[in-house]
Each structure stands twice: as structure tokens, then as C-alpha cells.
Amino acid sequence: MSVPPAPDTHKQPPGVAVVTDSTPYLPAELSKRWAIEEISLYVGWDGELRRESDYEDLDAFYAKLRDSAQLPTTSQPSVGDFLACYEPLLSAGRDVVSVHIAGGLSGTCESAREAARILAEAGHPGRVEVLDSQTGAGGLGCLVIVAATVAEQGGSLDAIVDAVHEARKSLDIWFCLDTLEYLRRGGRIGAAQAMVGTALKVKPILTFGTEIAPVGRVRTQRRAFERMVGYLHELNDRGASDWVVQHAQAPEDARRLVAEGTAIFGTAPLFCTEVGPVLGAHLGSGMLVGGMTRPQIPVRTAES
Prior knowledge:
This protein is globular. The two termini are 35 Å apart. Residues 1-10 have low confidence and may be disordered. It has helices spanning 28-33, 58-67, 79-91, 108-121, 137-152, 157-170, 181-186, 221-237, 251-265, 277-283, and strands at 16-21, 37-39, 42-44, 50-51, 73-75, 95-100, 128-132, 172-177, 203-208, 212-218, 242-248, 272-274, 286-292. A hairpin with a 3-residue loop joins strand 9 (203-208) and strand 10. Helix 5 runs antiparallel to helix 6. By secondary structure, it is of the alpha/beta class. The protein contains ten helices and 13 strands. The chain has a six-stranded mixed sheet with strand order 10-9-8-13-11-12, with helices on both faces. A four-stranded parallel sheet has the order 2-1-6-7, sandwiched between helices. A three-stranded antiparallel sheet has the order 4-3-5, covered by helices on one side.
């Protein structure tokens, strides 16, 4: 995809800092482009948890996931991780909007809110607003980019919060997995539990929200790909202005989806990346597509 040019390094950073966690799996160049702060979740086997951001070889991680009799353990960032991020930003005179993976899937928002409470009680200047995205992966990434765009335009903290809430109304994410086994074993299966037992030889199609919920099922990889392409057509018909593709150990499918989506929308996706260890541990392999309509709302600045 084409990435917007890097901002002028002599410019002052936006008055509102945008923070997220590691689970949107944004390309590094986009995080740098909008100065998005990322706080990593943790994942590992046998009690040896490492920051998700420290896993550089995703092929090796997924190979171990396939071969291991035990699922890895995942954990949200600590309150201390959030304090270490928020405190310097507030001390520099900035407000913070912190947008994270759905609270129904992770305790990340809880840690973030506790850190914000501690800083407020300590009398730190500025505000920290923690937003539960009620989604994950690429959907969360879309909302984070909305927040960063409005911040760059000089929007106030309240304006950024409004924009994220408005974008969330139109955001929709579908993903197709090779199996429900990882969701079942990891206890994150949610409403998709109803498909267990009937989905042994089918590929489930699900959606991210406050929980993971089923949308449908297909029997072959070819049909799964066709459903994802069909969903891109649906998003375009709804007027989605932004779209994304992600995958877990399916790079060729992702490349083909990007090509199909570019032809459908007439534009490149916001990003195309591979899902990392934390969500990969619970999902296994598969592909994801989603999109949203960028909100058209007046940008309120801190002075307005």
C-alpha cells in the first residue's frame, strides 16, 4: 500500500497523544507516521511471558503453536506499563486518548483505566480518555488511525473521542479461520460456541465485537476466499471509505484479497499485515477483512 509521507519533524506533536496496544498489528511506518504509542500485550509458554512486540519471527511462533500440545498464555499490559507511557505524555502538557482491544476479549482496558485513575488522583495535568474499541485486530487499527488523523488536524480530546465513536458505528470485521479449535481451547469462543461440534470439517466465518460471534461457515478454502471477496463488495456497497486485510499464515490469500479489494474500491487498503502472537494464539491461521466509513464531523480544537 502507499503510505502517506512522514510529517515534518520540525512540527510540534499534536496536543492529544494517541495510544493503543499491540493487537491492531499496524505497520511500523503507519505508527511512526502518526506518532502512535503502542503498549505491548504479553504471550509465551510455560510461564515465560514476553512482550508480543519482541516476537520477530512469526513463522517460528506459528510453527510452535501448531506443534505444541499446550496453548501459550496471553496477558494484558500491566498498570505499570500504562503509567510508564502516560506519565511523560501528560507531563509534556498533552492529553491522551487510549484506544484498545474489546474489553470482552482482554483486560487491557481495565489496566489502562486503572493507570488513568492513579494519574488523575496524583494531580497530573491533562486528561486520559480510555476507549474500548469493541473490536480487535484490523478493526481496532482503523479506529486508531481515525483518532490519530483527527489529533493531527488539531482536534481536541473530545473531538477525537466523538470521531472514534462515530467511526465504530460503521466498522465491521469478518474473519475466516481454518478451525475453531484454538478459540475453543483458549476460552475466547463466545457466541461461536454454538458452532462447535458441527464445524469440524468446515471453515467458520466470524466477526469481532464485544465478543467473537459467528457469521457463517464454508467447506473449502476456495469458498472461504470467495466469501471474503463478497464481503469486500458488501463493504463497498455500504459506502465504506477505508478497508483492511490481515492474515495469519496465509500471505498468498492476503495478497489476492488486496488485489481484489483494490479493484473493488479503486484504492489500496489502509494496511495489510499479519496477525501477531497474542491474537494468533487464540485464532490460529486464517484471513480477515473489514472496513468503515470515515466520519465526516467538524473537528473541535482545544481552543474552540
